[in-house]
Amino acid sequence: IVNRSVPDVCATCHIHATCHQTEGKSVCICNYGFVGNGITHCQDKDECQIGASKICGNHTLCHNTHGSFYCVCLDGYQASNNNKTFIPNDGTNCTDIDECEEPGLCGRNAGCVNTEGSYKCYCNDGYKLENGERFFHPDENMVSCKEIGCGSPPEMKHGYIVGNYSLLPGSAVRYKCKEGFYSNEGMFSYCTANETWEPDTLSCKAVDCGVPPSVSNAYPASVSETTYGSEVTYTCVHGYFTVSGNRTRVCNAKGRWDGTDLVCKEINCGKPLLIPHTEMIWDDSTTLSSRVYYRCKEGYYSVGDRNFSECMIDQSWENITYICK
Length: 325
Ligand SMILES: *[C@@H]1O[C@H](CO)[C@@H](O)[C@H](O)[C@H]1NC(C)=O
Ligand SMILES: *[C@@H]1O[C@H](CO)[C@@H](O)[C@H](O)[C@H]1NC(C)=O
Ligand SMILES: *[C@@H]1O[C@H](CO)[C@@H](O)[C@H](O)[C@H]1NC(C)=O
Ligand SMILES: *[C@@H]1O[C@H](CO)[C@@H](O)[C@H](O)[C@H]1NC(C)=O
Ligand SMILES: *[C@@H]1O[C@H](CO)[C@@H](O)[C@H](O)[C@H]1NC(C)=O
Prior knowledge:
The chain is mostly beta strands. Helix content is 1%, strand content 38%. The protein is rod-shaped and about 185 Å long. The structure holds 2-acetamido-2-deoxy-beta-D-glucopyranose (5 copies).
């Protein structure tokens, strides 16, 4: 039986309210997530207002929705239900993600430390950051771990490193010159406190033998280089021939020209050939290109093409056809 004089309360409920029967009366009550008198207003209740950590738990963000809300973990945290969003009443909480489980996160020569909600990187032993900091985060700093020390030592031109050395400040590298080279400067480079090698340019000079020795009756071929390994070749002057010694001399590592002086002797053809029935017209010269003339004695006449013979390079007189009849 409906009492028509009583207004239908349920018909007046707000759209976000529901009609409930209590003690024989109809009452409009705002739905879950809404607050108000149930008739003229049912406003969305901002559950997040009381604070994300209170309602969603630690390390969360709270998002209010029309009539409800949901929770999201902060960056670096993961919901224990493995979902992006959750409602806290199912026991889900946000736990720290161990970012360091991802290999290589910190890059070369570095290690990783997990922190609450994040992580940080440090350089391995023997390495350091250029900015002097102890820790870095690869997303924030464009830094890398550099080996502590001076790096590889400078090379010495015409030289080489002897013995062992370390790259740490305070250590030294010892050099030697290659054979035939020398240096009047220091033979060390030092790793300084600011991690540079000093000096960083080192070089050895080639040993120089200087002007080739002068050899009597011989001359050297024009010499362009007189340093270690250079060669010079001698030739006897015209009219002389090689008796002993070295034609080629080599500049040695000690700065001397290897070998012995060339010995050049003047060409000597000796006594000219005797030709029957002739007399010689000769100045007694027996050197290269000396000439002896022949003339038939009185009462003879000559047959042949030439009346003279020359002293030749092989130290013999030319064989001529000169016949006196
Ligand atoms: C939230 O963090 C506080 C302080 O670290 C701690 O005392 C509390 O137990 C935490 N709450 C939950 C639900 O883990
Ligand atoms: C993850 O979220 C979806 C939808 O938001 C829900 O259906 C599911 O039950 C959730 N899973 C867990 C393990 O809570
Ligand atoms: C978070 O949730 C996990 C899994 O439900 C649970 O084992 C752990 O004890 C919870 N931690 C806190 C602090 O409530
Ligand atoms: C040699 O022969 C040439 C001509 O063939 C002659 O003129 C010259 O006088 C000769 N010399 C001697 C020394 O007889
Ligand atoms: C000179 O020539 C003659 C005739 O050709 C020859 O018999 C003789 O052996 C030659 N002598 C020399 C030293 O060559």
